[in-house]
From TrEMBL, chains A, B:
General function of this protein: Confers DNA tethering and processivity to DNA polymerases and other proteins. Acts as a clamp, forming a ring around DNA (a reaction catalyzed by the clamp-loading complex) which diffuses in an ATP-independent manner freely and bidirectionally along dsDNA. Initially characterized for its ability to contact the catalytic subunit of DNA polymerase III (Pol III), a complex, multichain enzyme responsible for most of the replicative synthesis in bacteria; Pol III exhibits 3'-5' exonuclease proofreading activity.
Listed name of the protein: Beta sliding clamp
Recorded name of the encoding gene: dnaN
The family this protein is said to belong to: Belongs to the beta sliding clamp family.
InterPro entries in UniProt: DNA_clamp_sf, DNA_polIII_beta, DNA_polIII_beta_C, DNA_polIII_beta_cen, DNA_polIII_beta_N
Naturally occurring in which organism (per UniProt): Salibacterium salarium
Length: 380, 380
């Protein structure tokens, strides 16, 4: 293997595939990044067996030449050093060549690195997925949908299926759902499919995979193709493939959890509510249970308060944009509400309560593509 | 105690004094910030018994009114919560009042915090220092001098006096020295004094104190007054007092350590050398000893290399701006040299070697107010 490559493109590809590499793997070859040079270009692969990322740099793209392939071949190099090394090389180009025994030489400017490589034949092959269950989304929309749901997945391994985000796609409508059984976040969007009969359900992608994917997604409306199989999901970009395993198990049915009626409904400024709860959390966090108390007063006013026996208490009044229905006193985990308010980009939110002991719903005031559901906390 | 204060000024003062407060103190009252309201203004104090910081907000400054004092008095409030609370209050003003039993109320906008205060009579009084040993420095120069020396203090408690920076002031010349016995950083500057006979030596300020002070210092040439006593040092700003204890013990005499002659002298680009050593450190860090090898070649060229048995090796050649004297092969702790190069603001450095087994010196090429001394590492 022997090629000369533009450093900037190479660094970006290495950084992308490096996201899949874990230093804690039990399979030694997976601590490396695989480099394949062919006449078409250079392919980099990283994997921790849960996530695999493949990035391709073509020899040339329209008028720019990225790679000069002098000899095809493959090598695996220790990811931990390789990513740092290419970032710190001084030249605009990097020359990489493999000699006997996987000994690899990197040259850039007046710097020469001689690295001990690993046998590329040992590196596992990535799966070829059947592409019959597939749909498309703009990158920026996919990025939003992940941001607005993934924070609500469970971090506890007692019910593994809840550590993922559930994906359903019916009638060109995509629904992402995450819940840790105390709160639930749901986001819907229209998708494009190639077949009318596509129906995807119980596809649960690990939250960890989505958090890595989110870092690769860019704020562009270029499309991503999503391919679903029984055990894997693949996100296909222009020059990048992102594979993730799916979680086993039946994702709970969540539709029937969402209350259809409301006894107390209010509209509030998202930012004002967020800041008020953040202040209240300062004390409720100290009491270690994050409990914040919430009640309606006369004249469209609500009161938020929290107490820490050691430090003191905080009380805050806020005027609602609108407030209808029954009087209410309720307590909740303030941290969970704050997490949800942070991902709502709308100026106002609707909150729908169905009594002090029942789950309640927060939605953006200006669209119905997002919903957050919370259990109240019993304080007596 | 009862006053109304501009939030912005108050937040900044709280943040300043909070730097002195440690949550790990064994003296409960020191987990708090003391607030004193008098007719002149509001004074805040924080202390961990090593460092004490006092910040004063006058009632008014020229045309702006900062504080409206309604009743004089004092209180101590838990620093951990208080600093977060004032930062998150919504209004431009904060009203603070103390009721019975040190119960304290903070009001801002529609928010009310009721906090449990502590008895201000328990709070230790700050010392009144004799101001007969005193000199002056611009803030930005003091900030530079700290940055350029404090990184070299020892982090090991086996010789406590080396965990501080030694200050000497003779003939209006200030010298700051830090060493961990493997490397030494020295910085000098002209100071202003009020007496010709000022002679300060063996004044060792803990590195930790200087790191806190550095965060308060601003990039202005306004003067700071420095007051030295046998056991304490005081930095006096316009509205801020920063006290630190001094370290006990005799600071080593360092002047005679610095070689006066040089067998090999070179001038190099500071940035090129820094980046080259950073690349070499990638591998020598893995070998866990940070050892980098350095040698002169023909024609004003030097070679830098490092080896990790596991990962591989790196070799880099660099052309010197100038190179004079004997051939040289030397090994050193690359991390120490990198630390020093990072605080040298000059474009070029002079390196003066006196043989492979002797200490060597790095200086900025364009002034003689800074010097870094290093022991070589024996590799055979």
């Amino acid at each position: 293997m022997h090629f000369v490559i533009q450093r900037e493109q190479f660094v970006q590809s290495v950084q992308h595939v490096n996201k899949a590499v874990s230093s804690r793997t039990t399979i030694p070859i997976l601590t490396g990044i695989k480099i394949d040079a062919s006449t078409a270009g250079v392919t980099l692969t990283g994997s921790d067996s849960d996530i695999s990322i493949e990035s391709f740099i073509p020899t040339a793209d329209e008028e720019i030449e990225y790679v000069d392939i002098k000899e095809s071949g493959s090598i695996v190099l220790q990811a931990r050093f390789f990513a740092d090394i290419v970032k710190k090389l001084p030249g605009d180009e990097i020359e990489i060549s493999v000699q006997d025994q996987f000994a690899t030489t990197l040259r850039s400017g007046s710097v020469v690195f001689n690295l001990n490589g690993l046998d590329p034949e040992e590196y596992p092959r990535l799966p070829k997925l059947e592409e019959d269950q597939t749909f498309f989304l703009p990158q920026n929309l996919l990025k939003d949908m992940i941001r607005q749901t993934v924070f609500a997945v469970s971090t506890q391994e007692t019910r593994p299926v809840l550590t993922g985000v559930n994906i359903e796609n019916n009638n060109e409508q995509l629904t992402c759902t995450a819940t840790d059984s105390h709160r639930l976040a749901m986001r819907t969007a229209a998708t494009e499919t190639e077949s009318d009969e596509l129906s995807i359900s119980n596809v649960v992608i690990p939250g960890k995979s989505l958090n890595e994917l989110r870092q690769i997604l860019e704020d562009t409306d270029e499309r991503v193709q999503i391919v679903v199989t029984d055990s894997q999901v693949l996100f296909k970009f222009k020059h990048l493939l992102f594979f993730s395993r799916l979680l086993d198990g039946k994702y709970p049915v969540t539709n029937n959890m969402i209350p259809e009626q409301s006894k107390t409904t209010m509209e509030l400024s998202t930012k004002d509510l967020l800041h008020s709860l953040e202040r209240a959390l300062l004390l409720s966090k100290e009491a270690k249970n994050n409990v914040i108390n919430f009640k309606t007063l006369e004249g469209s006013v609500i009161e938020i308060n929290s107490v820490s026996a050691e430090v003191g208490k905080v009380t805050e009044k806020m005027t609602c944009h609108s407030l209808e229905g029954e009087e209410l006193r309720i307590s909740f985990n303030g941290k969970n509400i704050i997490d949800a308010l942070k991902v709502i980009d709308s100026e106002y939110v609707h909150i729908m309560f169905t009594g002090a002991m029942s789950p309640f719903v927060i939605r953006p005031a200006d669209h119905d593509q997002m919903l957050h559901l919370f259990s109240p906390v019993r304080t007596y």
